[in-house]
Amino acid sequence: MSYLVLARRWRPQRFEEVVGQRPVTQTLKNALASGRVAHAFLFAGPRGVGKTTVARILAKALNCDKGPAPEPCDECLSCQEIAAGRSLNCMEIDGASNRGIDEVRELRENVRYSPGAGKHKVIIIDEVHMLTEPAFNALLKTLEEPPPRVVFILATTEPHKVPATIRSRCQRYDFKRIGVGEIVERLGLIAREEGVKIAEDGLTAIARAVEGSLRDAQSLLDQAISYSDGHIGPDELQAVLGLVEGEVIAAALQGITERDAAALLELVDSLHQRGQDLRAFCLALLEHLRHLMVLKVSQKPGPLLGLTSVDPEILRGQAERLALPEIELLVRLLTQAEQEMRRAPYPRFVLEVVLVRMAEVKSLETLEAILGRLAELEKRLSQAYSVPSLELPLVSPIEESRAQALPKEPPPPLEGGPSTSPKGVDLEASWAEARQILAEEKVLSALLAETRSVALEGDLLVLTLDNGNAYLRTTLEDKENRGRIEAAVSQAFGKKLKVTYRYLPPEAELVKPKASMGNAGENPEGQARSLFQRHPLVQEALELFRGRIIEIKEGPQA
Predict the structure, then answer these.
(1) Which residues contact 361 (CB under 8 A, 6 or more apart)?
(2) Is a pLDDT exceeding 70 seen at residue 392?
């Protein structure tokens, strides 16, 4: 006789034996007891959680010699035939291989005939979302008004792919993922009955590896039993599950915190040489970072941590060395890399790159510090500007030559007032007065504070600024904002002026006070700033937060 795998041998035969789906089984039992059984059901949920099993139990309960009853007797001929899969009153159809309209038409012909010796004819269509659109259309009317004593049970792992017209004609039951504790309890029962020795930690490791699928857990236990010959230890689980040792995970995070990229590359090479699944390592490292986050934010982390492969003392030490924002950034980088590894032809290269980047992550400024700096900046901007000393080159040589070339025409009179045309204009004082008029406009005042030079070309006031981001340009070029600025400038300069903006190239260096624009490229501080701005991590941060650099401070050497 051929061997029957654990998943089939230990398949539940009664509602009370189903693990982790009590809301579904209790509702079906009550419906059977009260005689309120629908003619069509939709069982939706992940793989391996009991959809088809519950469908078979429902078919047995409907056709049982003692029923319809809340529980099948499992003793009558009808129950035994349905359990063995040879009953004519219970048809199981695979939607993936019988997905065409011809198969559905044949099904419609079969359901016209009354059930044989049983009481109900049950049609179970597994993976129903695989049916074609014409097949769904052919099934629609029969599903809505089936012949007497015919029950349809549709099972699917992707209910969103089932047409709404089909879903609306069924009672929907959502099956959830099974909890780790429930899977461990079931596996422990199976192990005892099979005479297998395995520690509870091993059962927990299996339960956590299957993501809520009891069928997958039973298959892994079956595989571990075959590998270990009756006694399952840590080494056997390591080989079957492909688990990564806790020491390797701890060493990886130590390399990240110590910024030792070379050690990380050597670790990846060691895993590759041993044939270790690199995606499994990536997921294990993600789980380790999650444990560190739990230790940082929870007063009672024990229940949240569960079973860990890393020594608790090492966990606590590493959690103290990392700030919560750093952990969040590392999780983001590693999650993105894990997704890329699924599609990459060389997953090892993706993993190596992300580990090196994680090692380069510097300490991040806390949110409280950033908010404090923003509050201080707002306080400074809210204060009225006293006459600041703009000791910047007001007019570049090119602008001066252009201004001399313009025709010397008297300025037009101000609208609504007498014509004023002062012979000498104090450019610095007038611009300071214009900024003081705009002091109440906090946003405009803050943006105009970044002005590098001011030039007067006839009736045109030219403001030179750094190569601004989209927000700066959009705000200054706004028609209403431009009107406010031109009104303030006209009032300060004593004549009607238009305002235009010029933006320095992205690589232009900042000019120190009283320095010439032509010598900016020779400024060592400007060169250092330019190199800092071009750093890949800085560029990514600026793009991520849509920001700009306000100030650069030299920190302690790493």
Answers:
(1) 256, 326, 329, 330, 333, 537
(2) no
